[in-house]
Amino acid sequence: MTDAECAYRLEELRRMIEQRLRRSLRRGSPHQLNEACRYVLDGGGKRLRAALVILACRAVGGRTAQALDAGAAVEIMHNFTLVHDDIMDSAPSRRGRPTVHIHWDLNGALLTGDVLLGAAYEALLRTPRRDMRPLLELFTAGLIEVCRGQALDLEFERRSDVTVREYFVMIEKKTAHLITMATELGGTLGRGTARQLRALKTFGHHLGRAFQLQDDLLDVVADQAELGKSIGGDIIERKRTYLLLTALQRTRGQDRRTLTRLLRLPPGDRALRAGRRETIAEVRSIFRRHGVLADAERLVRRDTARALEALEELPPGEGRTMLRWLAERLGSRAS
Amino acid sequence: MTDAECAYRLEELRRMIEQRLRRSLRRGSPHQLNEACRYVLDGGGKRLRAALVILACRAVGGRTAQALDAGAAVEIMHNFTLVHDDIMDSAPSRRGRPTVHIHWDLNGALLTGDVLLGAAYEALLRTPRRDMRPLLELFTAGLIEVCRGQALDLEFERRSDVTVREYFVMIEKKTAHLITMATELGGTLGRGTARQLRALKTFGHHLGRAFQLQDDLLDVVADQAELGKSIGGDIIERKRTYLLLTALQRTRGQDRRTLTRLLRLPPGDRALRAGRRETIAEVRSIFRRHGVLADAERLVRRDTARALEALEELPPGEGRTMLRWLAERLGSRAS
Fold first, then answer.
1. ipTM of the complex
2. Is the pTM of this model over 0.80?
3. Which CATH number goes with the domain that contains A211?
């Protein structure tokens, strides 16, 4: 398949998912809750996680129709995490629109997240399959892990001694687990062998890690227009990313003092906001000088390679080809 | 069975549920999240919903062991709603202890609720049964209804034209549905007939209504020491209860002006807080003069009677006896 064919096929899947997501929407009373759910699920996005469910199902010999509801379910669960995470991060916008708690209010956003989680289980339960237990176990374990990952992330914000190792534990729960869950769900729906399920799990794990590291990198080096949001947000919010934690381990003298001074500023510090551009440029150059950016790029390449390697366990075919294409594309994405 | 025997049996069930709830607790990292879950699930309470699952299961010929995990699951889901509702209501305390968002913070409480919901599904999935789909469908529909009920409740706080009819729609979603879900889950676990399941649903529906109406009543007429919290909270918070909405429909002249003036005060009004006792006494006497309290008592009796009537469809035995005892006790409870 050519690059254009793969892109066309992905877009086709995205449209099927959008249609399936619309089944979860309700009209009428309670008006605000239903509107907020529509606002969230209409918000677009790549629907990457849903595509992974379907492609993993196909890669082990299953059909698209078996995996569509589970794909929608994973996508809705992902959106539940975004709504609640945005409350916790006091994020004003997402994908170029006001977040739910800004557009409505905190209570509305809290409840929208809760009911989306219900809608996610409801979508999963539409799956035409007799034995639902393995699907529901994977899904529930995913929900719990993503909450635990977010709890670690919040904990890290209050600590100054977070290690790179702890960072990886956190992103494995907060980001990678949901991606692994997507590929495992797909493999289970397609009735893959134990060996194929392990391969899909390994694939999801490395893809998820590469995805998060690439996210951290893009925040610092992306083209702002292409990224669709302002650069350096993680730096200004002093997020404990792989880049910052590695730089803290590696720097001495002036560079280290620059970083620790930045970390000690109170949240929303005026001078920091006023000197935003300069701070970002300075921190970026520290990252570059100490090889942190090159290191992160190397890790993205390594995890992408391991993800691709795992795919070799799966039978050749459109599903596997598309998974490979997606992994290569995500490892070199610009937004 | 004597009253003492029933009380003893219920206490026995409560202990089994407490034990089952402890399986959902984790130690270690993320520390705060695990501690908050323990805080919530260790908080006591009557474990009424869990007991209903087990007793409904027994009433159709099932065994206690089949229903324990589902009982724990319903109890955990109930606690999830309490944690999030307390955030939305800015409630400072519950069962005599600071609420989660006061003891920790908003983000911690939000995440505690989320992970409790995961733990609720996890507990349900421990149920030793092949066909999990009907259980999970009931459970998920319950989650969605309870969120929709809470959304209506929030909506009503901003409206001055809520009708008694709308109030019943709201409490049927917010309170009664979870109780109906408990009895339906129990009946399904015990493999009750379609007719028995309908009877259990009717029982739960009327019991849930009676329970909420009795709650509204107790806020106004209970003995403060017995209730374990201060009287009149609903009046001071201007909650749209059955009592207030009925009084608004029924009063004219001075009494009506007193009520509408109260409703127009801004939240946390100083004069209202200072004159708390007098306001409560005045509103209580309006409720009494216009027969609102007597009406609510009549409704509690009527719904309790209908709940008991539904039980006649079930075979006689300990399960049915205990359900009857519970319904009679709740209809005349003082706390």
1. 0.95
2. yes
3. 1.10.600.10
Chain A contact for B105 (CB, 8 A cutoff)? no
Pairwise CA distance, residues A62 & A297, whole Å? 34
Give the range of the structural domain holding residue B98, as residue numbers without chain letter. 3-331
Given an 8 Å threshold on Cβ–Cβ distance, is B115 in contact with A144? Answer: yes
Listed by number, the residues of chain A in 278-317 with a beta carbon closer than 8 Å to a beta carbon of chain B are none
Structure confidence by residue, pLDDT tens digits, A33-57: 999 999 999 988 889 999 999 999 9
**Per-residue pLDDT tens digits for A125-163:** 999 999 999 999 999 999 999 999 999 999 998 888 899
Domain count of the fold of chain B:
1
d(CA A151, CA B111): 7
Tell me, yes or no, if B114 comes closer than 8 A to chain A by beta carbon: yes
Nearest beta carbon to residue B110 from set A29, A110, A132: A110
DSSP state at residue B290: T
Residue B5 carries which side chain, given as an amino acid letter? E
